[in-house]
Amino acid sequence: MPRFDLPLSELEQYRPEVAEPDDFDAFWGRTLAESRAAGGEVIVVRAATMLRTADVWDVTFPGFAGDPVKAWYLRPAGRAEPLPVVVEFLGYGGGRGLPVDRLAWSAAGYGHLVMDTRGQGSGWGSGGDTADPHGAGPATPGYLTRGIDDPIDHYYRRVFTDAVRAVDAARLLPGADPDRIAVTGGSQGGGIALAAAGLCTGLVGVMPDVPFLCHFERAVGLTDRDPYHEVVRYLAVHRGAEATVFRTLSYLDGVNFARRADAPALFSTALLDQTCPPSTVFAAYNAYTGPREIDVFPHNDHEGGQAYQLTRQVAWLAERLS
């Protein structure tokens, strides 16, 4: 596969003009205030599993508009002392699956909250358990154009709110140290982690791995892969809707969340990644206002570093917490 994006020397300096709505902060402040005001309790039920190295709880917490959102909470078996918690967000189309799918962070000594992604969970993995009860207007198959005519209605407004409420819930979990909460995720999960970083306070670490949902105008014009190509297909039918579409997406752009984040961050990108092109990742990385590092995989596509990156994240977070 040939290189298709900017050379690394240019990526490291890439700081594009990314549209930011004047009411961005007010929009998100109002959204989060309304969802917190909707109430709802965090329900934590011990789960019976085959696992011997991890204790597991089935968690339900109030997300956007108080909607119930499912999650798994894992801790190293038998540990009673307060532990830092890693909140993980998932890739496009996947759900929280089964506890056995997500053992690395508890095996490394952390609490681990795995958030289900509303309305997803039927594309890969072991399934999801959270509905998205809110409708939207015309859209292409997938999630990126759901509610594309207005940021109030957009699918990711709900998902990003769920993510912030997951961090709120993590601070209330049994055995969680509320002052040591980190967020992570790959692809879609990386984009959600960036949104959480920009909307939450007091995080100890942010680990966006090959993140999606960044620098939309660049991505839509550069790659023919989904999910970004969903926008192309939508605009090919809804001719003349570009201004409306990109205005909505500006409320959801990881670059704009990165401008508001202050927790230490470890990004990753792959230089052959045609799903989340490296220039879109570097746009967010170079805008990030907290301490930041990025791992670059020169010969990988969207798989990025996989287990190598997870190993790096575990070591990096331990260093931050020490």
Automatic annotation (TrEMBL):
Top-level taxon in the UniProt lineage: Bacteria
Occurrences of domain Acetyl xylan esterase (ranges): 1-318
Region named Disordered: 121-143
Entry-linked InterPro entries: AB_hydrolase_fold, AXE1_dom, CE7
The protein's name in its UniProt record: Acetylxylan esterase
